[in-house]
């Protein structure tokens, strides 16, 4: 309890560092949340489109029956693309947290010297420094959650539009042109045209997605939060030991 109180006082004392960490962490958490929303949107879109094309095949049997496989292949490419984006964000966050750690350690080098002088080793200092990070990052969780709830409709619409652009990139429009197949009876033209009025090359990729439940939003956010916290701890530890090992060579520190 004493360490927690001291860490809170230290976080309040170093306001600029605390605020800067809060902003950077919140931005990366928001980016990860957006990628997660894109993944959820793509999963729903695939299910929705497969159902849509099942209806079209029932109306016009001469439509290409391999379209389901094409949708599945494009879905694999899109999901891989989103996972690569998530990995890129984590790598960028690791680099950002690493340099933040170097800056924080440099700003508090005299304090580190003093703690080391009274016999506190680096491996004992690190948990105290990490505990100070707890306050700004834990604050970002409810802040981002409130932002996602307030702007959830806009957030969802943006993810749908972005996902549609990605889908059109991976799933070319000419693949949606119907192909005549042998030994398949062609239905009456007028009757088919009436049934196909809701469908065209633009509307076929339109998807109506309902808002996610608050519990789903929070669960997804919490998963990204834990992932980003792990990234922060590893990056901050690496930055701390790198600076105290190579940046403070003039004064030998006790490990």
Shape: elongated
* Low-confidence blocks of residues: 173-203
Structural class computed from helices and strand pairing: mainly alpha
- Sheet with the most strands, sense and barrel status: none
- Radius of gyration from the alpha-carbon trace, in angstroms: 27 Å
N-end to C-end Cα span: 25 Å
- The number of distinct structural domains comes to 1
Q: What does the average pLDDT come to?
A: 78
User: What proportion strand?
Assistant: under 5%
- Based on DSSP secondary structure assignment, what is the total number of beta strands? 0
> How are helices and strands ordered from N to C?
HHHHHHHH
Total helical elements: 8
Portion in helices? over 70%
Describe the protein's topology.
Elements: H1 2-13, H2 15-59, H3 67-107, H4 109-117, H5 122-150, H6 152-170, H7 189-195, H8 214-247
Helix pairs in contact: 1-5, 2-3, 2-5, 2-6, 2-8, 3-8, 5-8
Can you put this structure into words, describing what you see?
This is FtsX-like permease family protein. The chain crosses the membrane at residues 21-39, 85-104, 129-151, 221-243. With 255 residues, this protein is an all-alpha fold. The protein has one domain (2-247). Helices cover 77% and strands 0% of the residues. The chain has eight helices and no strands. The protein has helices spanning 2-13, 15-59, 67-107, 109-117, 122-150, 152-170, 189-195, 214-247. Helix 2 crosses helix 5 (122-150). It is elongated, with a radius of gyration of 27 Å. The relative contact order is 0.18.
């Amino acid at each position: 309890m004493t360490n927690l109180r001291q860490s809170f006082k230290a976080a309040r004392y170093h306001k600029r560092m605390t605020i800067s960490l809060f902003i950077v962490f919140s931005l990366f958490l928001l980016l990860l949340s957006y990628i997660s929303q894109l993944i959820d949107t793509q999963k729903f879109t695939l299910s929705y489109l497969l159902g849509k094309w099942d209806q079209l095949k029932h109306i016009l049997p001469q439509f290409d029956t391999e379209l389901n496989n094409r949708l599945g292949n494009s879905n694999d490419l899109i999901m891989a693309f989103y996972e690569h984006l998530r990995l890129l964000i984590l790598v960028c966050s690791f680099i950002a947290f690493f340099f933040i750690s170097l800056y924080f350690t440099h700003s508090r080098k005299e304090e580190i010297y003093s703690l080391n002088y009274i016999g506190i080793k680096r491996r004992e200092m690190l948990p105290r420094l990490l505990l100070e990070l707890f306050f700004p990052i834990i604050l970002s969780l409810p802040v981002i959650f409130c932002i996602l709830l307030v702007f959830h409709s806009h957030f969802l619409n943006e993810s749908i539009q972005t996902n549609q652009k990605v889908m059109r990139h991976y799933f070319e429009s000419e693949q949606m042109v119907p192909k005549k197949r042998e030994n398949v009876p062609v239905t009456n033209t007028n009757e088919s045209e009436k049934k196909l009025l809701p469908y065209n090359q633009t509307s076929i990729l339109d998807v109506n997605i309902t808002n996610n439940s608050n519990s789903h939003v929070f669960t997804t956010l919490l998963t990204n939060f834990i992932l980003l916290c792990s990234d922060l701890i590893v990056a901050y530890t690496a930055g701390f030991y790198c600076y105290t090992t190579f940046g403070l060579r003039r004064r030998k520190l006790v490990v």
